Amino acid sequence: MKSLELDLSGIRSLVSDQELQAWQTKSDAYVAQLHAGTGQGSDFLGWIDLPATITDQDFTAIEAAARSLQERCDYVVSIGIGGSYLGARAVIEALTPTFAAYRKEHSAPQVIFAGHNIGEDYLSELVDFLSDKRFGIINISKSGTTTEPAIAFRILKGLLEQQVGREGARERIIAVTDRARGALRTLADKEGYQTFVIPDDIGGRFSVLTPVGLLPIAVAGFDIRELVRGAREMKAQVDEGVPFAENLSALYAAARNSLYQHGKKIEILGNFHPKLHYIGEWWKQLYGESEGKEHKGIFNAAVDFTADLHSMGQWIQEGERTIFETIISIATPDRELRIASDADNLDGLNYLAGKRVDEVNKMAELGTRMAHVDGGVPNIRITLPQLNAYYIGQLFYFFEKAVGISGYMLGVNPFNQPGVEAYKKNMFALLEKPGFEEATQAIKSRL
Ligand code: PA5
Fold first, then answer.
1. pLDDT tens-digit series, residues 235-284
2. Which residue of 79, 84, 143 sits with most ligand 1 atoms within 8 Å of its CB, as the best mutation to test the pocket?
3. Domain boundaries, the chain
4. In CATH, 5-39+228-416 is 3.30.1330.30
5. Is residue 146 within 6 Å of ligand 1 at its C-beta?
6. Ligand 1 in contact with 116 (CB < 6 A)?
């Protein structure tokens, strides 16, 4: 079976082989700490063994719940934010046919996302759109107390109950949340919703292979068993005991940290395939939230090429030399489309006649890589043989394992996110949430 490949040749002008190799001892130690649970954040390491521990029963339960929503709904709103949102969206956007043919080619309900913003227009337009549609809701929140999804759920639950009554809504709402704690657990138990549990030891951004990601992905009609199979295969490749020189996650972590030590403080994740946009969003959260701590950490951005070569391309090529890039490449596209010959050749494109569009894309990719390396932007390349659930599963696990190692190399706890509480505290104080009286007084004195 083919596998994801990692190519570090594009960092060699800055990071020597010896420099990379020098990480070996530390890397082995950090991998051992991750597996033994002796490093920082050891309460949140459930993702390490997760792919291997999902049972046939687990899959069957998720698939049955997905079928029940599929039978009743043309649209399913997946409500969640951050780790309770991005993994499912990344897979669904990557695998769904892009254009209007969606409904014809792909018979599953359309999964719509909400609860990842507090946009009044967004929510109001969604309510209008759904008001005459057959829809259901997957409400996802590990803490069960996050404001954005809670607002979206209150509004959409109201709409659904208006449409199909409380009993009908109960058949169309599934909650994914903590086993015992949080407002969503209380509400789900009281209303009698079907629930799936997010394990205590798996943080939001590592939860894509729990029901958080698997349920919406299954509802959208994609093969969650393949996704997990890919993650399992990758787990074996980056497990404890795999030599550093062969461990793709360890090598990626070492490369990033070497580059960081050379002053490369920004990493852009680029793709040449528009369907990978949300993989970039998922990755940004995984790396940004895991590493940006104690005034340290690589800043993560994501770009969609070639579109962004016509905007950010200038900065990347000639701006401050604090950047490196990681490109996700797809070896073989699903479809084949060739450029036709034209008798008049007014657009001057006949030199491409007969070529596949992907051949042009690949040369754009190679040309970009060479230009960026020449311009002082080291390049890491990750190649997926194809864009399918199996290889996305590999990619997810590869990145998860790498961020655990990389965070330890950086000297931070990659499994917490204390910084995300600051805005919430201010927002609650400004909104005069009960329990925040002191903070309200303090913040109002600053206005
Ligand atoms: O990775 C994380 O922990 C966060 O991004 C959370 O996923 C996000 O804040 C949503 O939290 P919750 O699932 O508790 O609503």
1. 999 999 999 999 999 999 999 999 999 999 999 999 999 999 999 999 99
2. 84
3. 5-39+228-416, 50-222
4. no
5. yes
6. no
What is the reported pLDDT for 107? 76
Report the candidate in 19, 28, 12 with the shortest Cα–Cα distance to residue 257.
19
Say yes or no: CB of residue 143 within 6 Å of ligand 1. yes
Distance 284 CA to ligand 1 centre (A): 14
- Whether the full predicted model's pTM is greater than 0.85, yes or no, is yes
Lowest-pLDDT range of 91-105, 241-255, 282-296, 311-325? 91-105
**Residue 148 known to be catalytic:** no
Q: In the CATH hierarchy, which fold is given to the domain comprising 50-222?
A: Rossmann fold (3.40.50)
Residue 334's Cβ-count burial label (10 Å; 0-12, 13-18, 19+) is exposed
Would you state the pLDDT for residue 1? 62
Active site residue 191: no
Tell me the mean pLDDT in the region 232-237.
Answer: 98
Q: Is 290 in the pocket of ligand 1 (CB under 6 A)?
A: no
Beta-strand pair 135-141/5-10? unpaired
CB 290 within 8 A of CB 411: no
CA-angle at 91, arms to 225 and 6, nearest 5°: 90
Q: Is the pLDDT of residue 169 over 80?
A: yes
Q: Is the pLDDT assigned to residue 103 strictly greater than 70?
A: no
The CA 80 to ligand 1 mean position distance, Å, reads 8
On whether the CB atoms of residues 205 and 85 are closer than 8 A, the answer is no
Q: Do the domains at 5-39+228-416 and 50-222 have one common CATH topology?
A: yes
> Has 424 been annotated as catalytic?
yes
